[in-house]
Amino acid sequence: MERFWSKVNKKENGCWEWTAGCVNGSYGHYRYEGKKILAHRYSFMMHHPLTIDLREHPKILVCHTCDNPKCVNPAHLWLGTNADNVRDRDAKGRGNQAKGEKNGMTKLTEQEVREIREKYAKGNIFQKELADEYGVRQSTIGFIITHKSWKHL
């Protein structure tokens, strides 16, 4: 327990930040019973021992109300599914919610997407040909045609 707390820095904003090793530069990790565990999961287990054994339920997430992945403050942690976590992210406006040209990552315009769908609907053209014409991958064209991307159009 003392080893765990020696790696925590309590901030004025209420977050207890993990200062030791981090996974991908964000989530802290801690070695417990010979295995690596995410530091915030360990903190939750420590402070809520009767709730659930998280080692037996890897699909249950320990989510952050503070949105600080290094935080291990149990008052900032809650249990949820991936869907719960995504809903929380979107409700806070942290998801990549920009659609179409507003996204900033897209290579196509809305007009080009409409053209692609029209050309394909007329027939006599392959997805690969459209991909070459518009400078994107064939899979991108497939997602456009099936409305898996650019759903808002």
Please describe what this structure looks like.
The protein is an alpha+beta fold and 153 residues long. The protein has two domains: 90 residues, Homing Intron 3 (I-Ppo) Encoded Endonuclease, Chain A (Alpha-Beta Complex); 46 residues, no CATH class. The chain has a three-stranded antiparallel beta sheet with strand order 3-4-5. Strands 1-2 form a two-stranded antiparallel ribbon. Strands 6-7 form a two-stranded antiparallel sheet. A hairpin with a 2-residue loop joins strand 4 and strand 5. It is elongated and about 70 Å long. The mean pLDDT is 87.
Task: Draw up the topology in text.
Elements: H1 2-5, E1 8-10, E2 16-18, E3 22-23, E4 27-32, E5 35-38, H2 39-47, E6 61-64, E7 77-80, H3 82-91, H4 110-122, H5 127-134, H6 138-145
Give the class from helix and strand content and strand pairing: alpha+beta
End-to-end separation = 54 Å
Strand order of the largest sheet: 3-4-5
Largest sheet properties = 3 strands, antiparallel
Instruction: Tell how many strands the DSSP assignment holds.
Output: 7
Cα Rg: 22 Å
Uncertain spans, ≥5 residues at pLDDT below 50? none
Task: Please name the CATH topology of the largest domain.
Answer: Homing Intron 3 (I-Ppo) Encoded Endonuclease, Chain A
The fraction of residues assigned to DSSP E strands is 15-25%
Proportion of residues in helical segments: 25-40%
Task: Please work out how many helical segments DSSP would assign.
Answer: 6
- In the CATH hierarchy, the architecture of the largest domain is Alpha-Beta Complex
Order of helices and strands: HEEEEEHEEHHHH
Shape: elongated
